[in-house]
Design brief:
single chain, mainly alpha, Arc Repressor Mutant, subunit A, 2 domains, 6 helices
Length: 104
């Protein structure tokens, strides 16, 4: 199996560090002139099985596993995320994490 390009490697690291696909594309050095162009890179990168596998490995190496995320969400739903957190806040974070993991 071919290895990732340097930019793909930088994208994976930036995605795990930043948690935002569009920002990770820019941080990795892809030259984008618009939001639509960035989204094109995001789609292409996240459709690549090698990149997907590298993201999962980087998350796992960082101690972030799907099981840990699910457990944290169960804990948050049981005990709450703070006095000012709303259900919309919980759903936004859950959706963001799910997208980052490629579940959505």
């Amino acid at each position: 199996m071919r290895q990732l390009t340097m930019k793909q490697q930088k994208y994976v690291a930036a995605l795990v560090r930043l948690g935002n696909k569009r920002e990770a594309v820019i941080d990795a050095g892809y030259h984008v002139k618009s939001r639509k162009a960035a989204d094109g890179f995001v789609y292409a990168l996240n459709s690549n099985p090698r990149v997907q596998k590298a993201i999962q490995k980087q998350l796992s190496d960082s101690g972030i596993t799907l099981e840990k995320i699910v457990n944290k969400w169960a804990e948050a739903l049981e005990h709450g995320c703070g006095p000012n957190a709303t259900n919309a806040d919980h759903l936004f974070v859950l959706k963001s994490i799910s997208k980052m993991l490629g579940l959505l």
